[in-house]
Amino acid sequence: MPRSILTAVATCALLLAASLNLCAQTPSKSVSRVFPQQFGHFNATAPAAPASNPAGTATDTLETSEAGLLQRMARTYSDGKNDVTLTIAEFRDPTGAYEAYTADLNPDMNASTAGPISAVDGDRLMFELGSFLVQISGSKNIGEADLQSLIKDLRAQADTAPLPPVRAYLPGKDLIDGTQRYAQGAAGFANTVNSLGHPELSAISNDLGFATGAEPEVMAAQYASGQNRAVLLLIAYPNPQLAEQHLRHLWGVVPGGSAGGVIERKASLLSLVIAPSSGAYAARLRQSINYDTQITWNEPSTTATDPPITSTIVKIFIGTGVFMLVAVVLGVAFGGVRILTKKFFPGKVFDRPEEMDVLQLGLSGKRIDSRDFY
């Protein structure tokens, strides 16, 4: 093959590989499409532009390597008197957005009217909508009607996939709001234990199975009631077999182990109570976990019911009558065929004399001839 043809083929292959790599790295759509031109009394004053995390850069590695951050952009709005900055981060899925949301929480935040997964810290409002993590700087300048108008616009474009079920397992009683942390990987777990004041537990990350494909999900939070204090760590696995396997690994690496009673398994969920003020408080926390096992039976089944007694009796009589009718019909048919055969073919089919014989007792000297009877 000529050298020029080989060179052309190689060049085309390189260009194709580069284009495929570029397509793989570039999001299919820019997050700028989500920003409304106007919501409530607020109108955009500039186009959306790339932005950094308003909460700081402490979770940048977590967001990009594990939570699946695709793009973060910001846009400024004004109602003529006040300006607000809307920042939207789009993640690979709602699970990643929720992980980033919990990583930015702190106990000084308060609940807001933006939704169940929202928090406000001074003048900064943060809430999660599907795969979007939304933050508003200058939120005090936004009225409730304007805020709900914005949320309605964003929800129409949000991913509706469900959030991780493990988030609902945490007990609500004694929970220190703002300390909730969710992790789906090693980076999220390290951020979780560090923010909850137990960085020494980062060493058990490998024993949880993040790197081996066990796919654990971690949910944790701080709890307090009077003098009682504890951190509750929940680890959910896809099935009970994986949970039991990793429980045995954790017994040898978690302080207290199974002998201390601080780590237990219930079906696919492991619960670890860290630094409880008392054993009784640890037991109370574990008993408050909102987790119930469910067994699903996929085999087809039917419900057996006894028929009414009157129906059974009627069927018995009908069946008996059918058998009697069949017996009569067969008897008449057999007898009729025999009579007709003997009438039209006497001594040829039935009762042929050469095949008939009469048993004799020999009481008299006269021999009986069977042909005398036919």
Description:
With 374 residues, the chain is of the alpha+beta class. The chain contains 9 helices and 13 strands. It has helices at 3-25, 60-67, 94-103, 144-155, 186-195, 205-208, 240-251, 279-287, 309-344; strands spanning 38-39, 42-44, 49-50, 69-78, 83-91, 118-121, 124-129, 132-137, 181-183, 217-225, 228-236, 263-266, 269-274. The strands form 2 sheets. Strands 1, 2, 3, 4, 5, 6, 7 and 8 form an 8-stranded antiparallel β-sheet that branches. Strand 12 (263-266) and strand 13 (269-274) form a beta hairpin. Helix 2 packs antiparallel against helix 3 (94-103) and helix 2 (60-67) runs antiparallel to helix 5. The longest helix has 36 residues, at 309-344. The model is unreliable at 1-28 and 257-261 (pLDDT under 50).
Keywords:
5-stranded antiparallel sheet; 9 helices; alpha+beta; 374 residues; elongated
Topology at a glance:
Elements: H1 3-25, E1 38-39, E2 42-44, E3 49-50, H2 60-67, E4 69-78, E5 83-91, H3 94-103, E6 118-121, E7 124-129, E8 132-137, H4 144-155, E9 181-183, H5 186-195, H6 205-208, E10 217-225, E11 228-236, H7 240-251, E12 263-266, E13 269-274, H8 279-287, H9 309-344
Antiparallel strand pairs: 1-2, 2-4, 3-4, 4-5, 5-8, 6-7, 7-8, 9-10, 10-11, 11-13, 12-13
Helix pairs in contact: 2-3, 2-5
What percent of the residues sit in helical stretches (DSSP H or I)?
25-40%
Span of the ends, CA to CA: 111 Å
Element pattern in H and E: HEEEHEEHEEEHEHHEEHEEHH
- Tell me about the biggest sheet? 8 strands, antiparallel
What does the radius of gyration come to? Answer: 42 Å
Q: What is the beta-strand fraction?
A: 15-25%
What global shape is seen? elongated
Q: Total number of helical segments?
A: 9
**Taking all residues together, what is the mean pLDDT?**
84
Uncertain stretches of 5 or more adjacent residues: 1-28, 257-261
Overall number of strands? 13
Structural class: alpha+beta
Oligomer: single chain
